[in-house]
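Researcher: Going back to the complex we discussed earlier. I've cleaned up the inputs and rechecked each line, so this should be the final set. Can you rerun the prediction on the complete assembly and write out the structure?
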Amino acid sequence: MNKINSINITGIRGIKNPLILNLKKKSILLYGDNGSGKSSITDAFEWFYYDRVGHLVSEETGATKGKGALRNLFLQSSKDAFIKIEYSKPELSSQKIINSTLRTTQTNTSVEFNKLLIASQSENLILRYKDLVTFIIATKKEKLDKLQGIIGFKQVGVIRDLLRKNAGRIARNIRAAQYDNKKGIQQSIIIGNFGQNITSAQHFFEVANELIKPLKLKIEIKSYKNIKEVLKEIESKEDREIIEKINFHSKVNENLLEIIGNIDSINTDYEAYYNSVADLKKEKEKVEKLQILKLLIEGQKLLQSDIINGDYCPLCQQEKNKTELILDINQRIEELEELKEEKEKVEQQAKDLLQKIQSNTDVLNALISEKLFKKEENAKLQEQTTKIISSLDKYNEELKKNILSEDKILEAITLILKKSNIQKIADDSKYLAKALSESQKKNPKLLIHTKLSLAKQAYGQYNKIIKEEAVLRKQQLTFEALFADFIKRQEQALNIFLQIFSQDINDYYTSMNPNEKVENIKLVPLKDSNNDLVGITIEYDFYDETKSPPIAYLSGSHINCLGLSFYLASVKAFNKQNSFFILDDIVSSYDRPHRTRFARLLTSKFNNYQILLLTHEREFYELISSEVKSKGWLLQDLHWSKENGTVLQIPLVDYKSQIEEKLSNKDINDLGNLIRKYLERQLKIIAFEIEAKVTFRYNNINEKRMAAELLDAVQSKLSKASKELKDLAEIPKMKGIPMFLGNTTSHDNEFQESIGDLEVIWEDVKNLIHYFFCSDCNKFISIKHYDSVEKKIRCSCGDLKYEWKK
Amino acid sequence: MSKEIKSGKDVIEEFFSEIYNIDKVDEKTVDALVSLYNEEKLTDKNIQNALEALVLEELNPTKKADE
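Model: Rerun complete. Updated structure for the full complex:
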């Protein structure tokens, strides 16, 4: 698996000058105040791997996927911004560059590197605080989609939908075709012409031979080919016109009978549809809620895409915690999903009926294109048939109406196709066909020709219908069986995954929250009334009782722990190419014990991974720095200034350990400098916290405060505000030490003190700082914690406090 | 973990390799489906066309006899 040797980020977001992290495959703990450029590192990574920076997309309207805001504002346009990553596998190393026209290039164009980039799309490389609880608060369907997405089940979902869709479509086609009606009509034509029903081809030939017997032909009918020969032999040119007419009216009769046979079903289905729509619209509230669903879904997308960054509702502008807002919206969407399903069922009713009506309209349209329809004698018939088509179109118009609109659909009674009207037209056609035949009583050849030809056609149609129906039913059964088998496989695979994945989540969560009575956390698949997998929920045992969902019972901090556990389980399950991940400021809501356990979880269960852990919380940084350092992690501080952007600093804890190491080794080389730098850094914090005033200086020069000046400022402040602390701190004693009296140019000069002197100085420095820094809460005393009742300045926990005049 | 968990690809491949053993399936319909899957053309439209072609194929012999 791939780890990172070094990262060079230049000109991206807050990073102006090259920021180089020589990681050498090690994990790193990076501290930086808010605005110091920590997230610039994460942004650069996100861009490198995913070619976008999600949270920047909202800062522009173009389709640059956040790239427009990627370059450092102060970077000269002639310079390229880039991130260069050197991996443990050198052949994969690459530099991604973005120039001032936002043109981007990856320097590594090898197949292996492209494979890495593609594989990385489904890996979990970055976790930001804002994404910590995304999964936990997601709707059950979103949870299912998310998990199926990361285990490569998207294609499974596609095939599952294809199987279901086709099984449903074939079933609908069979219903719409109304085969029983079609078969019945053809049978009645056969009976009408042969005087009996036909059960087989042989039977048909026998009856046909009986029919032609009076003609004493030399042909015996043994096949359909013989029937054709007979028809040809007995047909005469004179009879052709009348045969055409008889066939035409017979066809009109046949087709209209088919429509009549379908009318009841159309009317029943329309009435059911009308009632369903009426039910849905009966409660005005339901319709209104469904209208709101669209708004909620848009709102959900808006909040999840980070276009809204603050804690407020974008619609009413009222203050509201963003996580809680997403959660509220998700819950409301879930409630409305059921209503949406109800609406979709009604819409499906409309689609099915439209299909049924269309097959009838097709029959009539084919009929009306017959050439005899154009004859003047059939003008009335044509008008009547067109009217039936128009009546069917009226159903279509109603079925296509938006069921949620104010526009009411018409009641069945106002549309109803009357069978009696169509029956009359069909009867007229039948009568005409019969009359035409009877007019030819003295022409037995024509009469036999008509009967044989109509019966042959009807029997052919009958067989065709039987075969078509049989094929469709086989297809329907096949797709139903395939679908049932497929979902069984999908569910089995998903269940195994959920079981193992749940074990990891539970393991990580309980490591961070031991003895808290939350146990047996698991992801559970949810099914609807049709036994379809519709979502995933999170269950857990709380005091031995199964609870779900977590939001209802767990605190914000515990929800965050659960989110983090989910993320870490995902890393373990799915990061196959990259053996590293970035955790960007994710511990904000954790208390002290959780933070320690979190650090231990990372160093014990993820010691094979390379972790880039970013934080803006000094307390957390100091709390876990010795823990992670002992496991071989690197420590680094980040600092930002307008001139240089984000730059690295040696971390305070590193100064301290370097000083103590040198003292124990009696190594005085640079020891004085380190003590001075350490004191300066601590004095800056003290001066800041007690609001000690120093002379105004511009920007980065302001940072170059030396110990003497800072000691003066602190002393001056204590003289005015706290005699008690002034007496304890003994600052004048520190001011007397020569190595703290240097100027900027002598900053790195060698000092002449002996190891004994330096040991005493170091003790004095620590002694000074301990009056200002509480080792219990790891915080400096601060004006922020001024107690106006006791008139005391104190640390965060209150253990360290002194009288203070404001 | 990865040894026990089946990926989406595994599930699909297993399904198609065992598809003929599933009860109550019509061989011709399954042939059409497998052929589309092997050609990486398994879309709704293609399935619909293949199923319609099967219906027409079944009806053709009757048509010939009629002629």
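Model: Worth noting: The first strand of chain A starts at residue 4 and ends at 10.
Researcher: Good, that matches what I expected from the previous run.
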